Amino acid sequence: SQTIHQWPATLVQPVGSPLSLECTVEGTSNPNLYWYRQAAGRGLQLLFYSVGIGQISSEVPQNLSASRPQDRQFILSSKKLLLSDSGFYLCAWSVATGASYGYTFGSGTRLTVV
Amino acid sequence: AQTVTQSQPEMSVQEAETVTLSCTYDTSESDYYLFWYKQPPSRQMILVIRQEAYKQQNATENRFSVNFQKAAKSFSLKISDSQLGDAAMYFCAYRRGSGYSTLTFGKGTMLLVSP
Question: Residue ranges of the alpha helices (H) in chain A?
């Protein structure tokens, strides 16, 4: 069966520090991968998605970047965190074909920038 | 661009009763899919139910069912025999069926369940 792992679960970082959140999927090949952010009391905002290794699409221009160095690995990064980067970050995957399938989400990372 | 609107920020229900969460969406597409996700306090996103736009029959999953009104672009979720474990944030989501597409979420409805 397919599983998705996301870490760390919680992170407190000072303003101006770098960030690296990692997400890996097991049990499937060539998944579509996604990074969402959920600010307090708000819905989910799509940040990045990837349909293949090295292929990254950005939905919102911001202080963050994403990379997909391997088929089932998706990394969210920042060189210098801002206070506004605080939030709950969710990684998700879906099958490459078939919009009828929803996404399967990781357990999320709560990021607090201080 | 597609939008998903959940007009109820919060709803309350007592155990064993029925509650309906509302969702409307805006699209010019004819081929699409609709979803309801549940986010309990653990914040893990869980797929509750899915509806294909080409199907007239409303989807049902145990105590969860939807009322899909395609012409009205409405997609409500009915929870029957509510349980304490149903307390969560519920998100409605839309995905275009043709070409590549991503999920668009509403802002969510917080469901409170009282004994």
Answer: none
Interface check for B106 against chain A (CB to CB < 8 A): the answer is: yes
Contact A4, A103 (CB under 8 A): no
Contact with chain A for residue B35, Cβ under 8 A: yes
Mean pLDDT by 10 residues, chain B (115 residues): 91 98 94 95 93 93 96 97 97 86 92 97
Q: How many CB pairs (< 8 A) connect A and B? A: 51
With contact defined as beta carbons under 8 Å apart, do B113 and B11 qualify?
A: no
- What is the distance between the alpha carbons of residues B86 and B84, in angstroms, rounded to a whole number? 5
CA distance B15 to B9: 20
A14-27 pLDDT, tens digit per residue, is 999 999 999 999 99
Q: Does A39 reach chain B within 8 Å, measured CB to CB?
A: no
Q: How far is A13 from chain B (nearest CA, A)?
A: 21
Which amino acid type is present at position A14? P
Burial B64-97 (b: 16+ CB within 10 A, else e): bbbebeeeebebbbbbeebeeebbbbbbbbbbbb
